Amino acid sequence: MGIRQKVTAAILILMIATLAILYFVVAGSVAADVIVMVTIVLLSGFTAILVVVNTTIAHLVISPTAELECAMNLAKTGVFDTRIDIRTRDELGDLADSFNQLLNLLERNEYKNQALAKRLKNSFDEANLQAHTDTLTELSNRRYLEKQLSIHICKALAEQSKLAVVFCDLDGFKKYNDEYGHQEGDEALKAVSMIIKASLRESDIAARYGGEEFALVLVQTDISGAKAVSERVRRAVENFAGKNEGEGPGLTISIGIAMLTSTSQTVNSLIRNADQAMYQAKHAGKNQIIVFGQTGLSRAALMPPGKLELKN
């Protein structure tokens, strides 16, 4: 039973008791019509008192209590921006002030927690990026490439699509370093990395595999498409002057290609085959491309001009 019902019941009991006492006191000495009139007056008075008391209770107790309960329920769900507008100078007003202060504290803490969560997320994202990125070239690192290659092998096998792994190694990089210094060698690695990035699609993966070696994963790409990408990279590196400018040692690149086949469906086998093909290109005279399992192709015969578009 609520406050209003309890007060109403108490007033009704008081009214009945008053009328009963009045009746027994005056019943023998006052005329019946006077008793009826007095009863009507008393009933009207008690009714008016009941209305006033109920209205006052509703204004001072029930509505503020409902507002307080609503704010509490919102606070349970994590909503702390509501405030209770109770300005009475009584216990309910004091309770509302205390609860509003609690909401202020919770709201400030919520902002702090959100800011902290944002900083933690940014730190995690940065750490995650650093964990799979080569700091010098900003390409992916070896660990990330091998992890993604494993994923793309499974996907290609499930979709029965083509997949190529390309290994690249700069020719004459040691001489270039000895001639121009390690700082210029680093700049050359950055430039080659940019060349590789510009030759790939967003879905492909490029990584610095170690030293002056680079590895590429070309998704949904057949042999001709892998050759096209590799030739673009080879030509761009060959035309890269760096510190050479026609004099002194320059840079070229040897490239090996391995395709996902029925006999080569693992990360290790694809990388081993691409690496072997790349070393075959090195031994065959450098600055050329060899596909694993095929004989070496001369640079002139590798890809006719005008047919360097990537095929999916």
Describe, in plain words, how this protein is organized in 3D:
The chain is of the alpha+beta class. It has two domains: 3-107, no CATH class; 142-302, Reverse transcriptase/Diguanylate cyclase domain (Alpha-Beta Plaits, 2-Layer Sandwich), CATH 3.30.70.270. It is built from nine helices and five strands; from the N terminus they run H-H-H-H-E-H-H-E-E-H-E-H-E-H. Strands 2-3-1-4-5 form a five-stranded mixed sheet, with helices on both faces. Strand 2 (205-210) and strand 3 form a beta hairpin. Helix 1 packs antiparallel against helix 2 and helix 5 crosses helix 6 (182-199). The chain is rod-shaped. The chain starts with a helix and ends in a 10-residue tail after the last helix. Mean pLDDT is 78; it is low at 296-312.
Mean pLDDT: 78
Succession of helices and strands: HHHHEHHEEHEHEH
The N- and C-terminal alpha carbons lie at a distance of 76 Å
Q: Tell me, briefly, the overall form.
A: rod-shaped
CATH class of the largest domain: Alpha Beta
CATH architecture of the largest domain: 2-Layer Sandwich
Largest sheet: 5 strands, mixed
Number of strands: 5
What is the topology, as strand order, of the major beta sheet? 2-3-1-4-5
Spans of at least 5 consecutive residues with low confidence: 296-312
The fourth-level CATH homologous superfamily of the largest domain is: Reverse transcriptase/Diguanylate cyclase domain
Number of helices: 9
Strand content: 5-15%
Which class of secondary structure composition applies to the elements? alpha+beta
Oligomer: single chain
| Helix share, percent | 55-70%
Number of domains: 2
From the alpha-carbon coordinates, what is the Rg to the nearest angstrom? Answer: 43 Å
CATH-derived topology of the largest domain: Alpha-Beta Plaits
